[in-house]
Amino acid sequence: MTDTRTEILHKNYEAIHRNGFQGVRADKVVAEMGITKGALYHYFPNKFDLGYAILDELLAPHYLKIWEPFERAEKNFSAVLLGILESYRDFAKTDEEIKLGCPLTNLTQEMPPLDEGFRKRLHRITHQMQLQVETGLKNAQLSGEFKLDFNPTQTAFFYLSAIEGGFSVAKAMQSRAAFEMVIAQLKQFSEGLKV
């Protein structure tokens, strides 16, 4: 059984994904859940605290879990990397997911200029993801599986930028095919890293 606080987090996360942070009225979301405003404010004194909790407790763990297998891999780096790229493609497999876009990308485009708390959290999540990709790339180089002629830091930024940018372009074009082209190109690029 999910507790009230967790239920509030999840329902507001869904609303934010659909409407953006600024477009959500948290009190309205909890009213639709049959929960009082008092319960909302008991757990989250204001909307920003709710947003921070969604980032810290839902989005950060989710996105960091995606790249964890690559960061921790000891062999078969290419297969692990290709599997992660395939999981991104699977995420964007329905028209609804393309329409709504990537939750992390959406918040990254909406909130950093407006709120320092969001900016810091989104920076931390993105930076941690970049370090995970970079670590995996360095380990793949050290193992002899990947070439040594590329910069792992720059390449990690390239992967994240291409994926998150792919979500943005696909959302703007309302085209799953656009996102799939990005993933296909990243897979081809990944093959070129191998020795």
Automatic annotation (TrEMBL):
Listed GO MF terms: DNA binding
Pfam short name (any one): TetR_C_13
Binding region for DNA: 25-44
InterPro entries xref list: Homeodomain-like_sf, HTH_TetR, Tet_transcr_reg_TetR-rel_C_sf, TetR_C
Domain of life: Bacteria
Signal peptide positions (record): none
UniProt entry keywords in alphabetical sequence: DNA-binding, Transcription, Transcription regulation
Keyword Metal-binding: no
Domain HTH tetR-type residue range list: 2-62
Protein's recorded name: HTH tetR-type domain-containing protein
Originating species: Runella rosea
